[in-house]
Amino acid sequence: MHNRGSNKISSRIAQIRLVSSHPEVYEPCDDSFALVDALLADRNNLLEHRPTLCMEVGCGSGYVITSLALMLGEEVPGVQYIATDTNPHAVEVTRETLKAHGVHAELINTDIASGLEKRLAGLIDVMVVNPPYVPTPEEEVGREGIASAWAGGENGRRIIDKILPIADKLLSDRGWLYMVTLTTNNPSQICLQMREKGYASRIIVQRSTEEESLHIIKFWRDFGIKPDTKENMTVNKTAPARVLDTLLSQVHWLSLKKSGNSNSS
C-alpha cells in the first residue's frame, strides 16, 4: 500500500478518498504517486519559483494537478492552473476532484495543447506530465477512453515525442517541466533531446515497482547550453494580470465550446 506519510504532508496533496473516478479514466497509481512525490521533494524550490501559470497535460483523475494546487496553496497567491486531457470523461472527473478539494483549474478537452499553443506560448512556468509511456502496438495509440492514458507505441515514445516540442513552445523562459518516464522509454536519450533544445535535466525521483522502473525527470532552460535563446526571454518574469485574465477568459470560452460539442455527461 502507498503510504502518504504524516498529516502535514498529506494535507498538501490530493486525498485518494476525494479523487473522483470513472471506468474510462486512469486512476492514481504508482506513476501518479511518484510524480506527486517528485513535486513534494521539489516543493521548496517551487515555492521560491513562485509560478504564475501551471499546466498539466493529460490530467486523468485530477490527482496531480489538484496536489500541485494544494502544495503551492496560499503560500504562492494568484497562481492560475490549466489542465488538458484528450478523454472527455477525464476532464469531468478532474473537475469533480478539484471541486472536492476546494481548488480550481481551467479544464480543456483537447489533445496535448491543441488549440492553445499560440495563446499559451512562453507563459507556462510549471508543466507536469504523466504521459502514455507503455510500449504498445502503434495501432493502440490515440484510442478513445482509458487506453489513451497508457498506450505509447514503439518504446512507449510516440506521445512523449509529440509532447516535448510542444512543452518547449509553451514553457516560459524560467519554465520547469516534470515528466514521468519508464526505463524502456530511454530517459537518457530524452534528456539528450531536450539538451539540444537548451534544457538541463535531473532525475527527481527514481522508483522501481514489480512491473516497471520509473524516473521522474525535471527539465529547465539552461541558457549556458543555448545562449541564443535569450532573445526569446520576454514573456514571463511577471506576466501582467490583464494578459492572464484575457488568456483565461479565452481558455474558458474554448472549454465551453469543447464541452458543447462533446457528448460526455
Summarize, please.
The chain has 9 helices and 7 strands; from the N terminus they run αααβαβαβαβαβαββα.
Strand order of the largest sheet: 3-2-1-4-5-7-6
Major sheet summary line: 7 strands, mixed
Helix count equals 9
Radius of gyration: 17 Å
Number of strands: 7
Structural class: alpha/beta
Give the N-to-C terminal Cα separation: 33 Å
* Unreliable parts: 1-6, 227-243, 255-265
Average residue pLDDT:
82
Shape: globular
Q: Percent of residues in helical segments?
A: 25-40%
Strand portion = 15-25%
Order of helices and strands: HHHEHEHEHEHEHEEH
Give an overview in words.
- By secondary structure, this protein is α/β, with parallel strands linked by helices.
- It contains 9 helices and 7 strands.
- The chain is 35% helix and 20% strand.
- Strands 3-2-1-4-5-7-6 form a 7-stranded mixed β-sheet, sandwiched between helices.
- α2 (30-41) runs parallel beside α4.
- It is globular, with a radius of gyration of 17 Å.
- It is found in: Nucleus.
- Keywords: Methyltransferase, Nucleus, S-adenosyl-L-methionine, Transferase.
Summarize the SSE layout with pairings.
Layout: H1 7-10, H2 30-41, H3 43-49, E1 53-57, H4 63-72, E2 80-85, H5 88-100, E3 106-109, H6 117-120, E4 124-129, H7 158-170, E5 171-182, H8 187-196, E6 199-208, E7 213-221, H9 241-261
Parallel strand pairs: 1-2, 1-4, 2-3, 4-5
Antiparallel strand pairs: 5-7, 6-7
Throw out a few tags for this protein.
disordered N terminus, 7 strands, globular, 265 residues
